[in-house]
Amino acid sequence: MSGGGGRWERVRDRVRSSSSSMRGDRQTRTVRLGRVQPQAPGHRTIFCNDREANLPVKFKGNSISTTKYNLLTFLPKGLFEQFRRVANLYFLMISILSTTPISPVHPITNVVPLSLVLFVSLVKEAFEDWKRLLNDRVINSSPIDVLQDQKWESIPWKKLQVGDIIKVKQDGFFPADLLFLASSNPDGVCYIETANLDGETNLKIRKALERTWDYLLPEKAAEFKGEIQCEQPNNSLYTFTGNLIIGKQTLPISPNQILLRGCSLRNTEYIVGAVIFTGHETKVMMNAMNVPSKRSTLERKLDKLILMLFGVLFVMCFIGAIGSGVFINRKHYYLGLNDRVEDQFNPNNRFVVAILTMFTLITLYSTIIPISLYVSIEMIKFIQSTQFINKDLNMYHRESNTPALARTSNLNEELGQVEYIFSDKTGTLTRNLMEFFKCSIAGEVYGHGITEIESGGAQRSGLRIDETKKSSTAVHEKGFNFDDARLMRGAWRNEHDPDACKEFFRCLAICHTVLPEGDESPEKITYQAASPDEAALVVAAKNFGFFFYRRTPTMIMVRESHVEKIGKIQDVSYEILNVLEFNSTRKRQSVICRYPNGRLVLYCKGADTVIYERLAYGNDTIKNVSRGHLEQFGSAGLRTLCLAYRDLNSELYESWNEKFIQAKSTLRDREKKMDEVAELIETDLILIGCTAIEDKLQEGVPSCIETLSRAGIKIWVLTGDKMETAINIAYACSLINNSMKQFVISSETDEIREVESRGDTVETARFMKESVKKELKRCIQEAEHSMHTLSGNKLALIIDGKCLMYALDPQLRVTLLNLSLNCHAVVCCRVSPLQKAQVTSLVKNGARKITLSIGDGANDVSMIQAAHVGVGISGLEGMQAVMASDFAIAQFRFLTDLLLVHGRWSYIRICKVVTYFFYKNLTFTLTQFWFTFQTGFSGQRFYDDWFQSLYNVIFTALPVIIVGLFDKDVSASLSKRYPQLYKEGIKNMFFKWRVLAVWAVFSVYQSLIFFYFTTAASRNSKNASGKLFGLWDVSTMAFTCVVVTVNLRLLMTCNVITRWHHISVIGSILAWFIFIFLYSGIMTPYDRQENIYFVIYVLMSTFFFYLTLLLVPVVALLGDVIYQGLQRWFAPYDYQIIQELHRHEPEQRSRPDLLEIGTAMTVDEERTFAISQLPRETSKHTGFAFDSPGYESFFASLHGVNVPQRAWDVARRASMRSRQPRTSIR
């Protein structure tokens, strides 16, 4: 006990001392000595290799759980989730009501369908959660070596505790967030892969503190008794603030010494680390939040439809209640109302009669709300996502082996209604495969060649550019596509400023964080870089003769050629003293290095705006010339960086380095203080030159954008690039052309520059806001004038980030929105990730338009989550965008298939499913409603309880699911050939209140036929024994007609009828007959089934039954036949016109080829294939229920054949375009 007490006293003493030492930093902190939890709110103290000392703090364990439920919470929480849906809650209320004496139906009528729906939903939830549980068990049981009694013991991950010393072997995963102590590599470094965190497969280097390198072997590691004071757990993956206290020495801990859970160890035999954060407190688990839940627009409108049905239900029940109160009268002596009767039928209290009848009718008419609708839609959407979208070979990218991925099935139909697309540029429209293309050194441009952007711009200007012939020194490899003999093979020594060339190349070779891999030879080495740009610059240095081949935490080795004389090669080691890393705020990266001869140099590369602000005075000629070169490169669509350097003296550097070390050691605002200190030395720079890197457009981007534009979709490009680059990219991908009227709102004007030069930030902000306000008003006026002219040119808006900041001000936001909505294309350049999200939200919330955001990087996540639909591109910038998205694709061009094919089909299918559910339930309920008028509004049921229960669940369930999966108005090829068809979804043509009203009219009509036709016709009908038909005979006959008719009506809505349609419809009708044969063939005394006993056998023994079964569906569907014929004839939808155009074409294969035609054929073969496809462009449509007659003259005229006019052509022509849509061959 004394040992334990002494240990606790030592813990408490440490807490007192650490609290008092930090009191200077936090004056407001109150430290209460003697408490069991000695943790300050802003930081945690960890005692390494000492479990007992950490015990009082009660850190969380390392076991994780990603499940939603456990055994105790599954039922209550699962049921709560289900009853959050209004329809389920409504049916729960109906089920409760049906157990009361006022209910005319057996409780099973409502309990069975509700239970079935809940059972299916809960089983789905349980299955998904079980898979999560199994995955958690595997992870928690993974073994890890922990230091115990001076040796490594293997224990499961879940038993790991904060402060433990562990050993991780090569290719192993880190089980918790660790402080990196020692490595098997002699220089204290290790290489890690962060693919599980951000999707990036590039290796990253981590370096242990030199003070802890010795704690490698278990005997030595057992002596480690350090104390870690660090930040509390948070979700910031790229920051860490803390100090390691060993003895009396305090060492700052940076993210460079932190190994995060989920990352894996590479190219290192093993490492030793101390556990800092465990379990759900690790950074990766704190980032493991779900993507914000999104609901489609159609689903929200479905809620309104359900509410409308509630209203209809209330009106029907109210009418019945009033009728009941009026009808109840003692004059109906045969009802026996003179005796003592229950309250529901007591004429002395008509108000009570009306109220009780109201509740009775609510249970009777409950089928008007389709309980199985949500389950059916979820099933349809799930299959659409997993079987159709995920397995579409047209969206499979062969080079990267990446298929499309629907990460949610909630938004399938939303893809068919998108009106605005917000797209990133780099990696989304472009390939994110950077190639060093040109450069400017000391005011001289180097590099020949024409970029794709220049070529596209020249074509639009009507200019012809001849291909330049490559020189013998031209080199083209991954990351390098440069052709200029003046810099190659040491020829730069003959340039007018060879010293500047030498500094330029050394800056490329030294100023980076790239890791070399493989053999140390120029041909076999590979580079692991944080971005493709950085790798391209290092590859460029290699090709210029400055080959970076090895790095340690403190040294960079470069093999330099032709420096002293042509042909001489020497290995030079540069000592890396400090690395001032790149971030989105600094927009630059600097390295301070020491040459072998003792020279101290700071090399810096970054955005032109940032570098120019930090240049030394003088040498204006090179500055101005280089600025011109930057604009020239930007106009060619190239990505530019400026390179600069500064010579340092030892005194200046030592003084600055003390401040830098102090900033690194602080626990509060460390990043901010380090940036402030970096500003002190990144001044008085000397400009060396600038680089120009080409990022080529992805394949098929221009044709994809053109197709989407024809579909009525407006595309906005939101990029961080310069305005010139963004505009030229927009030209190259057909987003903007010379026929458009362009509005440019830029902060790079002479007036704004003049105000900025005065240095008054307040005045600058006021002036820019006024300038933006004037520009917006001018553009609005010009836009209105342009739209009223005969030419009516399309409009385009180009605005930069600074102006956008003021345009998004609440006072100007509406003006910006009005201008933007009138523009065909919008390009926002130099925008931040936050501004991307703000622009998306502006259109989404301000214009109430359906939006889609697409991007590939972490800076696009906020934009993706802000839009109705987020699409991530699985590119080279990691998987952050994909992990935050709703759908993931590999190439921008796949948007054509995702939207025009799958999105459009899903929208049409879901609309049909919802409207059909509305129709069949309203029809069924109205027959019961009409019967109420014949029963004195007493609430007598017309159908047997089981009929009502199984109507939605069995007899009409499967066919509508088949339609939701397989219905197809036109084929995929025709959907892309006629993109204008997509506009029907944008206008929501198939789920308007008018469409629902048409279905409702036919529901009323058919329900009247079902009820009055069967009841009136059966009044004098007799069975084989001469008895008149009773209630259950008539209702069974009416129900048979309902089941047959609603299933046949579904076939009439289909555009394509497959064997699955036949099987489902015939199967549903057969299911009814099989059920009624069994149900009426037996008698059970325990329920009201005796009413139906032998009914079907009696009915089928009469001729009347067969005549009714033939005539009633025909008469009921006659109105639909006439309406559909007239609608298709005089007011056809666009897709119906396309169907008629291609109705006689042969069937096309349903499965597209996996290989892309362009990569598998010669030019002649491609041309032959394209020509052969023209007359054979086919539709999946296999026949129509109602073919329109006599269109010979109309369609003949489309093909230039002169045929006499027909009378119906006049009406028909009004709905057709004056000319045939142009066909593009791809």
Task: Provide structural commentary.
The chain is an alpha+beta fold. Among the domains are: 160-287, Calcium-transporting ATPase, cytoplasmic transduction domain A (Distorted Sandwich), CATH 2.70.150; 494-619 and 637-695, Calcium-transporting ATPase, cytoplasmic domain N. It contains 42 helices and 35 strands. It is elongated. The relative contact order is 0.08. It is found in: Endomembrane system; Membrane. Mg(2+) binds at residues 424, 426, 856, 860. The active site is at 424 (4-aspartylphosphate intermediate). Residues 882-1132 form the P-type ATPase C-terminal domain.
- Helix tally equals 42
Quote the average pLDDT.
Answer: 81
The strand count comes to 35
Helix percent reads: 40-55%
CATH architecture of the domain at 494-619 and 637-695: 3-Layer(aba) Sandwich
Name the CATH superfamily classification of the domain at 494-619 and 637-695.
Calcium-transporting ATPase, cytoplasmic domain N
Q: Give the N-terminus to C-terminus distance in angstroms.
A: 83 Å
CATH class call of the domain at 494-619 and 637-695: Alpha Beta
Strand order of the largest sheet: 14-35-34-33-15-29-32-31-30
Topology:
Elements: H1 2-22, E1 43-47, H2 51-54, H3 74-83, H4 86-97, H5 108-140, E2 143-148, E3 151-156, E4 165-169, E5 177-183, E6 189-193, H6 195-198, E7 203-207, H7 218-221, E8 227-231, E9 242-246, E10 249-253, E11 258-259, E12 264-266, E13 270-277, H8 283-286, H9 297-327, H10 350-364, H11 373-389, E14 405-406, E15 420-423, E16 430-441, E17 444-446, H12 452-460, E18 475-477, E19 480-482, H13 498-510, E20 515-517, E21 526-528, H14 532-543, E22 546-551, E23 555-561, E24 569-580, E25 588-594, E26 600-606, H15 608-613, H16 620-635, E27 638-648, H17 650-665, H18 670-681, E28 686-697, H19 701-710, E29 714-718, H20 723-732, E30 741-745, H21 750-757, H22 761-788, E31 795-800, H23 801-807, H24 813-821, E32 825-829, H25 833-846, E33 851-855, H26 861-866, E34 869-873, H27 880-883, E35 887-889, H28 895-934, H29 945-955, H30 957-966, H31 972-977, H32 983-986, H33 993-1017, H34 1031-1053, H35 1059-1079, H36 1095-1099, H37 1103-1130, H38 1134-1141, H39 1157-1160, H40 1163-1173, H41 1192-1198, H42 1207-1213
Parallel strand pairs: 15-29, 15-33, 29-32, 30-31, 31-32, 33-34, 34-35
Antiparallel strand pairs: 1-8, 2-3, 2-4, 4-13, 5-11, 5-13, 6-7, 6-12, 8-9, 9-10, 14-35, 16-17, 16-28, 18-19, 20-21, 22-23, 23-24, 24-25, 25-26, 26-27, 27-28
Helix pairs in contact: 3-5, 4-5, 5-29, 9-10, 9-28, 11-28, 11-30, 12-20, 13-14, 16-20, 17-18, 22-23, 22-24, 28-30, 28-33, 28-34, 30-35, 33-34, 33-37, 34-35, 34-37
